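Worked example 4.2. Below are the chains of a multi-component assembly; read each line carefully before continuing.
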Amino acid sequence: MAERKNRFTIYSDEELMCLLCRGEVLAFDELYDRYSQRLLAYFVRMLNFDRDLAKDALQDLFLKIAESPEKFDRTRSFKTWIFSVASNRCKNFYRHQAIVLKSHNELSVVLQESFDPNFSAPALRHDNREFRKMLEETLNDLPPEKKEAFILKYQEEKSIAEIAEIQNCPEGSVKSRLHYTLKLLEERLYMFNPVNS
Amino acid sequence: MINKNLDELLIASMHPENSEIEKPEAELVVAARQMIGLRKRQLTERSNLLQNFMQFFKLDLRVYPVGISVLLLFGLVLFLREQHYSNHNGTVISQAESMLSLKNSTISVNSNTMLTSTPTGLRN
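Applying the procedure described above to all two chains together yields the following structure tokens:
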């Protein structure tokens, strides 16, 4: 099975979607391998660290893909398309379910000591764990559209144009959302700036 | 603070692996996988059905038999072609029309001679 699976790693996401339309389970597995972790991270952050809800959302998303892969517009990038679908699912969750905001204490449990200790930006002195904790807490306080823009920019490293396509809004709105978030982070994380310390 | 270093730091901090967001288990998508498997089965069945249907219409034509058949058919059509002829008035009528008596007034049902000579079986 592993050998057969490797056969699918050479295909692009869009090609895998075509194979999926023809009922290739291994093409689906390959797409799941490529995107499940990133999408789960996206959902976890978007749904205020409710992991069960995030897993449900992920499951729903892949079920929808399996149900009707023909819905994928082949003229679009799969990466952008799948995050658009994920974004819509989040909006539905926000609309229909009461999102229980996790307390800061619960968040701190989520953020374990896994960050690479060797990493350090030259101009910044910081405690990685504390920094991440503060960052996630700040994100949790943001309105969904700002949080999403930030996640897509810094987790998925998407361009402004791609984020605008996913969020279905003008690029100017994305820039403004990111600017707002970065300003807020600047205020909240000022102690990590070596100039201030 | 909003500079390249911060960008790099944020990207590193937001990376799923750095945030302890583990890879989700494959069991989450068992139903989705089954659905795709079912799709393949349906597509294969449909394709087989179509192939069988097309097999029925698949003709193995050869040039000589087809050519000879076409010639024979053409000859037959020429032979059985409706023949036209002229009556005593010089009007061109077809054999078929004559047989149906549609244009032949002599044996038409509208003919008085025929009607009067029809035995009715009623006598005083």
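Take a moment to check your reading of the output against the notes. Chain B touches chain A at residues 1-3, 5-24, 26, 28-29, 31-33, 35-44 (CB under 8 Å). The first helix of chain B runs from residue 4 to 14.
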